[in-house]
Write a structure and sequence with these properties.
The protein is mainly alpha-helical. It has four helices and two strands; from the N terminus they run βαβααα. It has two domains: 35 residues, no CATH class; 77 residues, no CATH class.
Length: 123
């Protein structure tokens, strides 16, 4: 990361590739002074990388609806929730979920939610 001008002081959080972690990765983060983070399970937000040829493919509409369904069905809604949304996905996925973000954010704001950077939540 230093090759790209990102030093350790600016990168305090670590989301492991594929969101997979274990005790070794947890200990490694602790040794390096990094905060291990991950998304909150329960919605399909993390599936926005999938492509139509994959069995696990979920359309952007399915992802969007899963977030709103979780919000309405869960006693705590999305309070404290961390959604994982990929800023890049395969060119084979023409149905990019990030194009739904404006609509999703506006809908959740109408429902009384506020959005925060993760560094303001985890100190």
């Amino acid at each position: 990361m230093e090759e790209f001008g990102i030093n350790k002081e600016k990168a305090k959080y670590f989301l492991p590739p594929y969101e997979w972690y274990n005790d070794t990765i947890s200990n490694w983060c602790k040794e390096l002074g990094l905060q291990l983070v991950n998304y909150t399970p329960g919605t399909l937000s993390h599936t926005d990388y999938t492509t139509p040829d994959l069995r696990a493919y979920r359309s952007s509409n399915e992802i969007y609806n899963s977030i709103l369904e979780y919000e309405s069905d869960s006693p705590d809604g999305l309070n404290g929730f961390i959604l994982l949304i990929h800023i890049g996905s395969s060119p084979q996925r023409t149905d990019k979920f990030y194009f739904f973000l404006d609509e999703l954010i506006n809908q959740l704001i109408k429902q009384g939610y506020s959005f925060y950077r993760i560094d303001t939540l985890l100190r």
